Amino acid sequence: MKNQELWRKLHNLEQVVREKVRLRPSTCQCKLCEPDHYFECPNCRYLRPWCFGAADDYPDLCDYCWAEVQKMEHDVEHEITTN
Predict the structure, then answer these.
(1) What is the SS3 string spanning 14-50?
(2) In 3D, which of 32, 39, 31 has the Cα closest to residue 15?
(3) Which pLDDT tens digit goes with each residue over 54-63?
């Protein structure tokens, strides 16, 4: 098992345990998320709190993955306009 995959599984296990003991998600930034207010990002497969969701362009992605998509779109746009 790769280190990154192991890290993801440990992170997700922590989120599930926090829900069971009624603690908010560990990476909650707003301090308002309830214990069960998290989702699995379909790209990275991490469990993320609702407040760590992305913008309207890609509502299912977490903020990290959304930023990566935005960077790729910007790079492609830049490549098209410079060629």
Answers:
(1) HHHHHHHCCCCCCCCCCCCCCCCCEEECCCCCCEEEH
(2) 39
(3) 666 777 899 9
